[in-house]
Amino acid sequence: MCVFCQIVKGEIPADKVYEDKNYLAFKDIRPKAPVHILIIPKEHIEKLTDIDESNKHIMGDMTVIANKIAKELGIDKSGYRIVINNGPDAGQEVYHIHMHLLGGKRLIFAT
Ligand code: 5GP
Ligand code: ZN
Questions:
Q1: Among the options 36, 44, 96, 98, which is catalytic?
Q2: From the CB of 13, is ligand 1 less than 6 Å away?
Q3: Domains of the chain
Q4: Is 96 marked active-site?
Q5: For residue range 62-94, what is the model confidence (pLDDT) as tens digits?
Q6: Which of 24, 34, 80, 96 could covalently link to 103 via disulfide, CB atoms 3.0 to 4.6 Å apart?
């Protein structure tokens, strides 16, 4: 089972900032910015390539959750970056689709 599925199941601890029936958001273990949150669907989907007509709502849902968290953490006005690494050349490390929410400083290049 992948590391993010283990977090969903509670088998690995995570610093959760948001949870609902289908999604979970938690702090990245190696933060690359003052705010670095990962937003994931609880369903195991490997990567962005696996998004199609049948599950494209996941992209919208994760965006809405990211915006909500950004507001709660007070970076909605200062701005933030959303990143999805897809596959080897993008440096995807965990093959369970996730959105990075990065902010809290002027970002040059991150993750
Ligand atoms: P990727 O390169 O796949 O887009 O990013 C994976 C991210 O997951 C990395 O930023 C890494 O620090 C984070 N990460 C990997 N394992 C864990 C973990 O067990 N817990 C948490 N909270 N983050 C993790
Ligand atoms: Zn998984």
A1: 98
A2: no
A3: 3-103 (3.30.428.10)
A4: no
A5: 999 999 999 999 999 999 999 999 999 999 999
A6: 80
